[in-house]
Structures are given as structure tokens and as C-alpha cells.
Design brief:
The chain is α+β, with helices and mostly antiparallel strands. Helix content is 49%, strand content 10%. α3 (45-63) runs antiparallel to α4, α4 (74-91) packs parallel to α6 and α9 packs across α11 (247-265).
């Protein structure tokens, strides 16, 4: 009896009225406030790493400008050196710290080439850090040629995009989970705010667990049993800072699209399944799928091998004039 009453109240709040929207937003904001970072809220290694990534990427962007201003970003760099040094002494050497060192080293070289005097406290602190942490080749800038781009785009991209569809009729062949790892490795090249890459792909292989997770998402009826692998894309709230509570969904969405395109390029079938759920259901998905509290659900992606012949929805697109507006 009590369970029935709870279910009716839940249905009333989340499905029959719009009150549930308020509760969902409160849940989102609670997680964001609890886990997101700012310069005065860096008590966790993950928060510190995302903060440092944000800061050093500012320097990378400055170095990549057509005509960088000599000695740009002095306040940012001074703070970056202090925080990176603190991180190094607390957690030791890492690719992140080595990338920061590489970026700072390029900054030093850039200013020397511009005849900037570097025998002062500001540059001495930078040199000290670069000496302490050996730079890798993963920070700073790199050269790309137009020829490189032209070679990379020498295929029919329109056909590639037009043949990607939402597939809900998979074959019974098993998808190699190692192939999915390669797919995710390619998809991680998606752009993100300040290169923080605040996303994660949870890949599920166990058929019983997949079905249990899919029962919590009501957009897979009729093809649940044919789903061979399930990917749940999440956003990491620790990767974002103030005024970025919506950015978690933007970055997560871009990454998800890259995953779908990577699956298509691998010859695998997939369909995106939305996770627009009551926060109570989201918590159940997290618990069932062993997903951390600080992660926000972005979407599920059902994956399977493609049949020789199958039907898909036409999904006619809007006319270009309804979505395109040129401004003078």
C-alpha cells in the first residue's frame, strides 16, 4: 500500500506536473555546488587537475594566436607556477605537470626570441619549475599545414554523415569490447572547454546488467534484447567551474556525437538513448551502473553489429532555411 502511494506521488511530481523540473534542477545544482571547482575550492586532486588544465590552456591559446603579445598572461602564469609546484610536491610527477612545463618552456623561448629580459624573479620562477619538471611534448603549440588538412578530408564526408542513422535492429553477432575502447580513444579528440575533457564513457558488456540499466530508460522497448553493448556517457562536475553548470551537457553532447561518429566509422550500429530522467531514476542508474555521484548522465548509446539489411526511421531533416540565418 505504501509503495503504491509513493509511486503515485512520484508519477504526479515527475510525469503529470512540472514540479519535478524544480527537483531535478535542485539536484543538478547540489551536485555542481558540491563538486565543481574554483580557485578557492581546490581540496581534491581531480579539482586541482582540472583547474591547472584550465589555466595552462590559457597560455597555449595565447601562444597559438597570430601575433602573441610578449609577456602576456603574467598574473595567470605566476599563479600557475605556484599551483603547479604545490601539486608536484603533493602528488608527484604526471603527464599534466610535464605538459604544463612544456607549455611554460615554450613561453620562455617565445619571450627570449622577442628580446625580453628574463633575468628577473618572474622568469626565474618559471625556469625553476621547468628545470624541476622535465617538459614532455604534449603541451604548448604544434604546427599543422593546410596540406595535412586537405589530405585528411580527401573523402566523401557528406556520404559518411548521411549513412549514419539511429539503428534499432542489430545482428546477434558479438561486438568486440576492445574495438569499443578504440572507438572511445578516437572520440576523445572532441573539443571541450579549455581542453578539460570532463567526460567519461562507461561500457557495459554483461547482458543482464545491460537489460537492468535499459529498464531504467524507457526509449528502448522493442529492441532491448538485441543490444549487445551499452555505453553510458557521463559528465564530470569536477571539471567545471562557476557559470559552467550547463557546460557539462555541452561538452558531454559534443563527446557523445564523436562517439556516435566513431562507432559509424568502425562499421558498428548505434542509437542514442536520452537520459532525461527524474533525478530519482538517475540515482538508480548510477547505483546500478557503478557510476560516481559527481558524474551527470549525458546519454546512453546502444551498440550492436549491423545486419546485411535493416530498416531505420526516415527522420526527415528540416529545410536549411529554417535553421540557417546569415548576418551582415
Amino acid at each position: 500500500m505504501i509503495t503504491r502511494i509513493k509511486n503515485k506521488i512520484h508519477a504526479l511530481v515527475f510525469w503529470q506536473t512540472r514540479i519535478g523540473e524544480l527537483f531535478n534542477k535542485m539536484y543538478d545544482l547540489r551536485l555542481f555546488y558540491k563538486y565543481s571547482f574554483d580557485k578557492n575550492h581546490l581540496k581534491n586532486q581531480g579539482r586541482i587537475e582540472h583547474y591547472l588544465t584550465k589555466q595552462y590552456h590559457i597560455i597555449e591559446k595565447g601562444l597559438a594566436l597570430p601575433k602573441p603579445r610578449p609577456e602576456f598572461g603574467k598574473d595567470v602564469i605566476s599563479n600557475l607556477v605556484i599551483k603547479s609546484t604545490e601539486y608536484y610536491h603533493e602528488y608527484g610527477k604526471s603527464k599534466l605537470i610535464e605538459s604544463i612545463s612544456a607549455c611554460l618552456n615554450e613561453y620562455l623561448i617565445f619571450n627570449k626570441k622577442n628580446n625580453i629580459e628574463t633575468n628577473n624573479k618572474y622568469y626565474t620562477n618559471i625556469k625553476k619549475f621547468v628545470t624541476m619538471v622535465k617538459p614532455n611534448k604534449l603541451g604548448g603549440t604544434k604546427i599543422i599545414t593546410k596540406q595535412d588538412i586537405n589530405k585528411a578530408i580527401d573523402f566523401d564526408f557528406e556520404v559518411f554523415l548521411r549513412t549514419r542513422t539511429s539503428i534499432r535492429d542489430f545482428s546477434d553477432k558479438n561486438v568486440d569490447i576492445n574495438q569499443l575502447k578504440e572507438v572511445i580513444n578516437l572520440a576523445k579528440l572532441a573539443p571541450s572547454v579549455c581542453n578539460r575533457q570532463g567526460w567519461k564513457a562507461h561500457v557495459y558488456n554483461n547482458s543482464l546488467l545491460i537489460k537492468e540499466l535499459l529498464t531504467l530508460q524507457n526509449g528502448n522497448r522493442g529492441f532491448t534484447d538485441s543490444v549487445n553493448k551499452l555505453i553510458i556517457i557521463t559528465g564530470n562536475t569536477k571539471a567545471f567551474t562557476k557559470l559552467e553548470s550547463n557546460q557539462i551537457y555541452i561538452d558531454g553532447g559534443i563527446f557523445s556525437m564523436n562517439v556516435l561518429l566513431s562507432l559509424h566509422s568502425a562499421g558498428l550500429g548505434a542509437v542514442a538513448l536520452n537520459t532525461c530522467l527524474p533525478y530519482t531514476i538517475e540515482k538508480k542508474v548510477k547505483k546500478t551502473g557503478n557510476i560516481k555521484d559527481f558524474e551527470k548522465l549525458i546519454m546512453m548509446i546502444a551498440v550492436g553489429e549491423i545486419k546485411d539489411n535493416f530498416k531505420v526511421a526516415v527522420s526527415n531533416r528540416k529545410h536549411i532555411d529554417s535553421i540557417y540565418k546569415a548576418h551582415q
